[in-house]
């Protein structure tokens, strides 16, 4: 069996997500633990010669978050210290890494079959990127312990970060991505194999059984 050709995509691991009092501070999983797993994934990708793309979200100067050139816009030092000239650097202004960038062209130029998504946020850029990859024919892997969510509340209600993150992992695994923890991904990378992925049909059958009324 041919080895799966992956690219690691480091999505928006920027200082604004680590500002304790900021509106975008990652709440679940623990941001320092997810950062450590992101660093592990980077180190393994580099050791394996895997293509790596690093992404930064950017708004104009003066914006409340991710303002171009601001401290919050900068990559977290753990990422910046590992960054190599061989990495693809992408700057985006939409949730999906594919939107308004040459990301797709770079993947095809590198014969990439599947992208491994790490970084932030589960509930925005990770989700949008995974969904955008589907019609383009790229496989997607999302590392659940190397990503993270925030608390959300609006006119329709509120949801705590843990519930949001865990729900979205179930959603992604049902159709859009193979979801795994970093340890399991590392074993798959070292073995050159794909991660197991769920599908909508079996997820629907299992969901119906799980919530069937008790007679």
Count, helices? 7
Low-confidence stretches: none
Any idea what the CATH architecture is?
Answer: 3-Layer(aba) Sandwich
Element-level helix/strand string: EHEHEHEHEEEHEHH
Distance between the termini: 47 Å
Could you explain how this protein is built, in words?
- With 215 residues, the chain is an alpha/beta fold.
- It has one domain: Isochorismatase-like (Rossmann fold, 3-Layer(aba) Sandwich).
- It is 36% helix and 20% strand.
- The strands form two sheets. It has a six-stranded parallel sheet with strand order 3-2-1-4-5-8.
- Helix 1 runs parallel beside helix 6.
- The longest helix is centred in the N-terminal third of the chain and has 18 residues.
- The chain is globular, with a radius of gyration of 17 Å.
- The N and C termini lie far apart (47 Å).
What's the quick description here?
With 215 residues, the protein is of the alpha/beta class. It is built from 7 helices and 8 strands. It has a single domain (6-209), classed as Rossmann fold (3-Layer(aba) Sandwich), CATH 3.40.50.850.
Q: Which SSEs are present, and which pair or pack?
A:
Elements: E1 6-11, H1 31-48, E2 52-57, H2 77-80, E3 88-92, H3 103-109, E4 114-120, H4 122-133, E5 139-148, E6 152-154, E7 157-159, H5 161-176, E8 178-180, H6 182-191, H7 200-210
Parallel strand pairs: 1-2, 1-4, 2-3, 4-5, 5-8
Antiparallel strand pairs: 6-7
Keywords, separated by commas or semicolons:
215 residues, alpha/beta, Rossmann fold, 6-stranded parallel sheet, 7 helices, 8 strands, 20% strand, globular
């Amino acid at each position: 069996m041919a080895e799966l050709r992956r690219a690691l995509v480091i999505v928006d691991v920027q200082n604004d997500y680590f500002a304790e009092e900021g509106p975008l501070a990652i709440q679940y999983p623990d941001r320092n633990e997810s950062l450590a797993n992101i660093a592990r994934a980077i180190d393994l990708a580099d050791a394996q010669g895997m293509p790596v793309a690093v992404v930064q979200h950017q708004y104009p100067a003066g914006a409340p978050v991710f303002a171009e050139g601001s401290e919050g816009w900068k990559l977290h030092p753990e990422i910046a210290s590992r960054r190599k000239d061989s990495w693809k650097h992408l700057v985006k202004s939409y949730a999906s890494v594919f939107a308004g960038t040459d990301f797709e062209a770079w993947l095809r130029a590198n014969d990439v079959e599947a992208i491994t998504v790490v970084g932030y946020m589960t509930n925005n850029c990770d989700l949008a990127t995974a969904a955008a990859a589907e019609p383009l024919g790229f496989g997607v892997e999302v590392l659940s312990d190397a990503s993270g969510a925030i608390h959300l509340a609006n006119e329709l209600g509120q949801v705590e970060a843990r519930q949001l993150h865990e729900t979205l992992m179930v959603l992604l695994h049902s159709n859009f991505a193979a979801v795994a923890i970093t340890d399991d991904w590392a074993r798959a990378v070292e073995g050159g194999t794909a991660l197991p992925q769920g599908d909508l049909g079996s997820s629907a059958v299992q969901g119906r059984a799980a919530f069937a009324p008790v007679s």
